[in-house]
Amino acid sequence: MMESLSPIAAGALGSLAAGLMTAVDAAPMLVVKRPGQQTQSVLLGFAAGVMLAASFFSLIMPGVEVLQTGGASRGWAAGTMAAAVLIGATVIGLMNRFAPVDMLAIGPAQSKHLARRIWLFIIAITLHNFPEGAAVGVSFGGGDLHQGLATTLGIGIQNMPEGLAVSAAMASLGYGRIAAFAAALASGLVEPVGGLIGASVVGALPGALPWGLGLAAGAMIYVVTAEIIPETRERSTGDGSMIGLMVGLVGMMFLDIALG
């Protein structure tokens, strides 16, 4: 079936399939009861670890690989990704400081400070899914169906713990099961948009994808280290949040490396 589709259509469908995988690990949130504060801290720590690993292994390293495949030297590729990461972190940091982000303090949570932090985190996760969708679209846009399917499978499996991260973050705000699941699903549905654009511009702007990957990585690293990790340490009475962080980081690192 996929063989009969144009590269753009195949890229859009592939990125949709990868994006829908965010709902798989979020599905348990539909049946479990609302977690207590200590469990919330562990889940948020897990989410932070997942996103730290994703920043490096799903975004930065693939960006370097794309640049080197395009003919860039190792030093130039490293410098380009470093600049993109710094710009992404700077933009989200400036937004956090100067933009009216207090409007993000929405939800049932009693702490508006916590709500603002977690909504920044969810936005960063959603932002990072856009260039991942574009990566799927680009892999199909090159006309290699097998490469496109492999990229779809890899990113789709990596999206599974990210869906759990989003749903856990929503649950920590006090949202119900359906809302937490819906947020995880919605965060993945930006990938078809990225896939459609990525497949469309693969010939016109071949250098845009690494910058998108780096910008998203910088934004996520900033939010996780400046907002989420401090919050989990404040709320946790033991080492549960750090254990969750390490499990999430190592688990996501394993998936990224094993799946290439």
From TrEMBL:
<dbReference type="InterPro" id="IPR003689">
    <property type="entry name" value="ZIP"/>
</dbReference>
<protein>
    <submittedName>
        <fullName>ZIP family zinc transporter</fullName>
    </submittedName>
</protein>
<feature type="transmembrane region" description="Helical">
    <location>
        <begin position="241"/>
        <end position="259"/>
    </location>
</feature>
<keyword id="KW-1003">Cell membrane</keyword>
<comment type="similarity">
    <text>Belongs to the ZIP transporter (TC 2.A.5) family.</text>
</comment>
<dbReference type="GO" id="GO:0005385">
    <property type="term" value="F:zinc ion transmembrane transporter activity"/>
</dbReference>
<keyword id="KW-1133">Transmembrane helix</keyword>
<keyword id="KW-0812">Transmembrane</keyword>
<dbReference type="GO" id="GO:0005886">
    <property type="term" value="C:plasma membrane"/>
</dbReference>
<dbReference type="Pfam" id="PF02535">
    <property type="entry name" value="Zip"/>
</dbReference>
<feature type="transmembrane region" description="Helical">
    <location>
        <begin position="42"/>
        <end position="64"/>
    </location>
</feature>
<feature type="transmembrane region" description="Helical">
    <location>
        <begin position="118"/>
        <end position="143"/>
    </location>
</feature>
<feature type="transmembrane region" description="Helical">
    <location>
        <begin position="76"/>
        <end position="98"/>
    </location>
</feature>
<feature type="transmembrane region" description="Helical">
    <location>
        <begin position="209"/>
        <end position="229"/>
    </location>
</feature>
<keyword id="KW-0862">Zinc</keyword>
<keyword id="KW-0472">Membrane</keyword>
